[in-house]
Amino acid sequence: MPAEWEKQKSTLVGWPYNKKDWPGIFKNIPRVFAKIISKITESQEVKLLIKNSKSQNIIKKLLKANNANIRNVKFIICKTDRVWMRDTGPIFIKDKKNQNILLNWKFNGWAKYKNYKEDNKVILRIKNYYKGDVISPKFNKKLIVLEGGSIDVNGEGLLLTTKECLLSKIQQRNSCLKLKDYNHIFQKFFGAKKVIWLNKGIEGDDTHGHVDDIARFVKSNKVFLAYENNKKDKIVVKIFKKEFKNRKIIPINCSELIWGFGAIHCLTQQEPN
Predict the structure, then answer these.
(1) What is the pLDDT of residues 184-197, one digit of tens each?
(2) pTM score, whole prediction
(3) Which of 80, 104, 126, 162 would suit a FRET pair with 235, their CA atoms being 20 to 30 Å apart?
(4) pLDDT number for residue 214
(5) Superfamily for 8-146+222-272?
(6) What are the residue ranges spanned by the domains of the chain?
């Protein structure tokens, strides 16, 4: 599995429609999505999932208002339950010929929500917009539940995850899998030579322990920094500029977005070159 900072062809994003995920503030959420999408279109294509053609013109107008490069937006009609493409979109790996393969992991709403059937169909519905075969990973002939936010890789054989997410009986994804089984699965599908098992994710995480909330392998020519209106954020930006001197730092205010229990990384899924 390529690291996230390796060259990318496109980014998958789902447009927000579920008002229940942002009670009382949903009217502000499309604008945040438009800002994020617009920044991505400066350098690559965005495959944008929308529920129907009627909403396309409204979305396009909002994107233009945020200076998006509309030529880099590919509108795809595909129903979703939620917007978190990190968990419901395809995870890409490379075959021996360096060709992309789309992994279609089973999705069960983080073992918490009942309305996830549309999200579980996303990959098969959009597969024709990508080049590459689709594989639905199994263990002992059973489909495996796995979300992209529950793992991270460095592209050289290291994989990060948490015991809280994958081994806990709370919001349990795969009751039949043990730690050694996951290690085998990660080696087989991601080429992981070593798995680093952290104990927990952040407190209060809706996913019960996703690793991308607490620890990430970071190396890229651009860094997206989610920030709130907090004086300490300016200090964080300075740290990023110091550590990533050759990279462009793009702060985006996600203080309202996070009320839906996710942010920039959660709502995107990259397609490697």
Answers:
(1) 999 999 999 999 99
(2) 0.92
(3) 162
(4) 85
(5) L-arginine/glycine Amidinotransferase; Chain A (3.75.10.10)
(6) 8-146+222-272
